[in-house]
Amino acid sequence: MSEKDSKDIKVERNPKINIQEADPSLPPSEPKPAATVLLVRTIEEAVEVFMIQRSFKTNFGGAWVFPGGKLDEYDLKDDINNYCRGLTDEVASQLLGVKSGGLNYWIACIRECFEECGVLLAYRSSGEVFGSSDESEKEILKEYRDKLNKGEPVLLELCQKLDLQLAVDRLAYISHWVTPKSEAKRYSTHFFIALFPEGQIAKHDGSEGVKSIWIKPEDALAQGEKGEFPIIFPTIKNLESIRGFTDTETLLKNKVEDQNNILTVEPKIFMQDGKMVLLMPGDEGYDDH
Fold this sequence. Notes:
Its cofactor is Mn(2+); Mg(2+). Pfam families: NUDIX. Residues 30-237 form the Nudix hydrolase domain. InterPro entries: NUDIX_hydrolase-like_dom_sf (IPR015797), NUDIX_hydrolase_dom (IPR000086), NUDT19 (IPR039121). The chain is an alpha+beta fold and 289 residues long. The protein has a single domain (17-262), classed as Alpha-Beta Complex (Nucleoside Triphosphate Pyrophosphohydrolase). 29% of the residues lie in helices and 23% in strands. It has helices at 3-7, 78-81, 89-96, 103-117, 135-149, 155-162, 217-225, 233-242, 248-257; strands spanning 32-42, 47-54, 64-65, 68-70, 122-124, 164-166, 171-178, 187-195, 209-215, 264-265, 268-272, 275-279. Strands 1, 2, 3, 4, 7, 8, 9 and 10 form an eight-stranded mixed β-sheet that branches. Strands 5-6 form a two-stranded antiparallel sheet. Helix 4 (103-117) packs across helix 5 and helix 7 packs antiparallel against helix 8 (233-242). The two termini are 17 Å apart.
């Protein structure tokens, strides 16, 4: 992003979003690893993305976001790696630029997606993409989603019970954002994109997520600009990265091809002459703050 681009960014706190600012007298908190997924589908020659509005009681409350959250210790267990299909930890780690443990982000992404909107990215033992379920299977899915939302580490158990493999190869890595030091709760979030599996239903959990919607990226951005659809800066930039596509096949092909070119983005926000300023990597003065 050029200096001109950064000057054009509106940097102001949205009163409709609950952002917890850091205490300037304390050192910045360490970013916690997190993963988020953009679920997309094609409707009438247009791409739609699934978004959830967070409860105002939570951090970023009131904002419309993609399903996701921080990594749990159980996402790091080696046992669950044996239930991942199509991607090894070595390849995943290379994509993220880490020595090992990269696959944990794909696993966390799938778990968080299932917890927050009930969509399970997986394969059946036949190799078929996990889609629609009979009533018995729906009851099992509801039971395990509830357990996961209570913090119980049962994703591996669910895979074993339904004889599933996690569809990590259906997630393409698209961006990496680190929360500015000016905020109290910070995350190092890897964003992914995945095709919504036919036969499933995406719906918010009613706890952390209070509303949900399928929306065109262009509409989300336009409504956000009007103040009618509260979204934070990383969400805006990820929406911008998927607008203009008319089908998911072209969109996903584009993102898969670009996975090796992802740069880490950590905006810097500070007060200058009574105004809030945002600088992005590459902007003049970025390294001075």
